[in-house]
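Module 6 notes. Inverse folding takes a fixed backbone as the condition and produces residue identities as the prediction. Think of it as a translation problem where the source language is geometry and the target language is the twenty amino acids. Below is one complete input and output pair. Work through it position by position during the lab.
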């Protein structure tokens, strides 16, 4: 419905994002899940009018990317809004994430909401943990990126409302966008996608039976603190360290330059295998089911998919007690972010449990699997449906 139209029983929504993302990425996965929910009729009061996104194809130039992002796609979105509204097929525009907030039109006949996953790039900061200075977001972006970020913040200011996912992000929204109507709705997680079958498939060939294997999932941005984790592992006694193997799924190189995680691990005699990035869920599940625990020392997360997905798979999680993590973990499960001794103790205890099984498989932890039920898709669908309806009626 437009601002001047009465409510209808079944309302329609334009789902907007920028360039096409793989469903295997964080933002891409959230977008694809939301789209699938709308297409399947999971939202009781809402249906999908259309999706506005674009595919630049292989190896576009920097100029092509900028032209599409700043000029062509915003104009296309505005035209689609105008056309759909004229045909009576549009009641709300939902912008997928803060990186697409520049797509909020200056004048729109229907309300526009933006889902804010985090403020890492819009409001970058430098943290100091364990004597290390850690960039959360990019503190020295290029001139073009600075202009891009200004467009994003102006878009958020134009939006009629904000939806966010965690208490930490909610606090930043209230601080920097105090006048905006705001809903906090954590992501939904279909836990059935991660539950291990009774008869486990064969483990990946990289998981040698004589070693205790741990999983690391995520990029190599400074906030992920892979160097800190490697420092912790390097302090283990040589006998223990030689029987531990780390398997990293995600980007191996830091986007802001610097040494790769694999190279730093090698320098510190830590056995570290970079499995790759863009790994499908089936392969990821094999690592979740067959490794001993997820190691997640991150300093800051918008939501933190890897710990929840590992818990849904019944896999123990060793994660730092930082914002967002605390909202997701079982009470008492997290580790002090700066206490290397606590990390060493937890890793050693996990190794001891593995050793005592004498080669037997790890049993999935039902308490972890039950814990993530608070992120059920049904809860997410109901909350999003209600938020969209309230934005339209206000």
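Target side of the pair, the amino acids:
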């Amino acid at each position: 419905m437009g601002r001047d139209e009465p409510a209808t029983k079944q309302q329609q929504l334009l789902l907007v994002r920028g360039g096409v993302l793989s469903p295997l990425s964080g933002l891409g996965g959230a977008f694809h899940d939301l789209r699938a929910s709308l297409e399947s009729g999971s939202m009781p009061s809402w249906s999908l009018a259309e999706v506005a996104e674009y595919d630049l194809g292989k190896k576009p130039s920097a100029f092509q990317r900028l032209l599409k992002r700043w000029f062509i796609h915003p104009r296309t979105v505005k035209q689609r809004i105008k056309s759909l509204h004229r045909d009576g097929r549009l009641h709300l525009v939902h912008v997928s994430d803060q990186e697409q907030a520049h797509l909020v039109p200056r004048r729109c006949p229907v309300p526009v909401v933006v889902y804010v996953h985090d403020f890492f790039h819009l409001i970058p900061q430098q943290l100091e943990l364990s004597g290390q200075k850690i960039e959360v977001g990019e503190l020295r972006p290029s001139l073009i990126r600075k202009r891009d970020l200004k467009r994003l913040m102006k878009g958020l200011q134009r939006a009629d409302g904000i939806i966010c996912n965690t208490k930490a992000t909610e606090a930043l929204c209230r601080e920097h966008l105090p006048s905006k109507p705001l809903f906090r709705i954590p992501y939904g997680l279909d836990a059935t996608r991660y539950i291990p079958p009774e008869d486990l498939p064969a483990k990946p060939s990289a998981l040698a039976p004589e070693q205790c294997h741990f999983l690391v999932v995520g990029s190599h941005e400074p906030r992920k603190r892979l160097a800190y984790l490697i420092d912790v592992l390097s302090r283990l006694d040589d006998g223990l360290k030689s029987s531990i193997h780390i398997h990293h799924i995600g980007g191996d190189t830091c986007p802001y330059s610097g040494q790769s995680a694999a190279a730093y691990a090698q320098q510190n005699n830590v056995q570290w295998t970079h499995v790759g990035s863009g790994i499908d869920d089936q392969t990821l599940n094999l690592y979740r089911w067959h490794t001993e625990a997820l190691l997640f020392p991150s300093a800051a997360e918008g939501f933190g998919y890897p710990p929840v997905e590992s818990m849904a798979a019944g896999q123990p999680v060793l994660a730092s007690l930082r914002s967002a993590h605390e909202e997701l973990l079982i009470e008492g499960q997290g580790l002090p972010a700066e206490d290397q001794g606590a990390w060493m103790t937890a890793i050693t205890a996990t190794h001891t449990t593995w050793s005592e099984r004498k080669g037997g498989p790890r049993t999935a932890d039902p308490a972890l699997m039950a814990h993530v039920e608070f992120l059920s898709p049904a809860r997410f669908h109901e909350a999003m449906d209600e938020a969209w309806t309230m934005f339209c009626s206000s």
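Reference fact for the lab report: The longest strand covers residues 11-19.
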